[in-house]
Write a structure and sequence with these properties.
The complex is a heterodimer of chains A (174) and B (69).
Chain A lengths: L2 H37 L1 H8 L7 H37 L6 H31 L14 H28 L3
Helix pairs in contact in A: 1-2, 1-3, 3-4, 4-5
Chain B lengths: L2 E3 L1 H7 L4 H8 L3 H8 L8 H11 L3 H4 E3 L4
Antiparallel strand pairs in B: 1-2
The chains are: A mainly alpha (174), B mainly alpha (69).
Chain lengths: 174, 69
C-alpha cells in the first residue's frame, strides 16, 4: 500500500465527519430561513427584492416549498454520509467485503435516487416562479451526472453483494 | 444439506484420529472439524485427493447423498 493510499482513509474519515456536521448546520440554516419567512414575511419580501407587478405571494409560496424540500435533503444526506462512514470504518478494520456494506451501498443508491427526484422537483418549482422580472438561478433539476451516479451505485451495490457471497463461499471451502 | 460427510466413520474404521489426519494431509484441525461436522460449503479436489490417499478410499466412501436430510 502506498503512502497516499494509507493517508486516504483517515482523510476520508475526517472529511465525512465534518460533512455530517455541515449537513446538519445547512439543515438548521434552511429551517431558520423557512421559519423567518413566516415570522417576518414583509421583511423577507423586501430582502429578496420582489419587483412590483409580479405575483409576490406565488413567489413566496414557491420559495417556501423549495426550502421545505431542501430540508428533506438533510436526512437523505445524513443517511449517505453515515453509511459511507461505516464503510470507511470497515475498510480500516481490513474487512470491507461484508453483507452489511452491500446493504449500505444499496441504501446510499436509494438515497441518491431520492435526491435526484428532489432536485428535479426543486428545479421545476424554481422555473415556475422565475420570470424576466424575477430571475431565479437554482443549481437544481435534471442532471445526467447525478443519474449516472445513481445507476453506478445500484450496480456497485449488486457487485458488492455478489462479491460478498463469493467470499463467504470461499471461506466455507475446505 | 443432502451431502453427508462420512469422515468420522472412515476414521473410526482406520483407527485414526482427526488430529493425525490433519497432520498428514496438512490441513488445520479446525478446517477438518468443519468438514467432519458437515458445516463446510464445498470441498476442494486437492483436499479430497489428500484424504482419499491417506485413508486409502474412494471419494464415494467419504461422501454420501441423502435426499431430504
Amino acid at each position: 500500500m502506498t503512502k497516499g493510499q494509507t493517508a486516504a482513509l483517515p482523510i476520508a474519515y475526517v472529511t465525512l465527519r465534518i460533512l455530517i456536521v455541515l449537513n446538519w448546520l445547512y439543515g438548521a440554516a434552511i429551517l431558520g430561513l423557512l421559519a423567518f419567512t413566516f415570522i417576518n414575511e414583509p421583511w423577507f419580501m423586501r430582502a429578496i427584492d420582489v419587483p412590483a407587478g409580479t405575483d409576490a405571494q406565488a413567489i413566496m409560496t414557491g420559495l417556501r416549498w423549495i426550502a421545505g424540500l431542501g430540508l428533506l435533503a438533510v436526512p437523505l444526506n445524513h443517511l449517505i454520509l453515515t453509511r459511507l462512514l461505516r464503510m470507511v470504518e470497515t475498510v480500516g478494520r481490513g474487512d470491507p467485503f461484508i453483507a452489511a456494506n452491500a446493504y449500505r451501498l444499496q441504501a446510499i443508491a436509494w438515497a441518491l435516487l431520492a435526491l435526484q427526484l428532489l432536485s428535479i422537483v426543486i428545479g421545476g418549482i424554481g422555473k415556475a416562479i422565475a420570470s424576466k422580472e424575477f430571475p431565479l438561478h437554482l443549481d437544481a433539476g435534471f442532471s445526467i451526472n447525478g443519474w449516472l451516479a445513481v445507476i453506478l451505485t445500484f450496480v456497485l451495490a449488486r457487485v458488492f453483494a455478489e462479491g460478498t457471497l463469493m467470499r463467504e463461499d470461499l471461506e466455507g471451502t475446505i | 444439506m443432502a451431502i453427508v460427510v462420512k469422515l468420522d466413520e472412515l476414521l473410526h474404521e482406520r483407527r485414526m484420529t482427526l488430529t493425525e489426519l490433519a497432520e498428514r494431509i496438512d490441513i488445520t484441525l479446525a478446517n477438518l472439524s468443519i468438514l467432519k461436522t458437515g458445516k463446510a460449503r464445498a470441498i476442494r479436489f486437492s483436499t479430497l485427493e489428500a484424504i482419499c490417499e491417506v485413508l486409502k478410499c474412494q471419494p464415494g466412501d467419504l461422501l454420501d447423498f441423502e435426499p431430504g436430510s
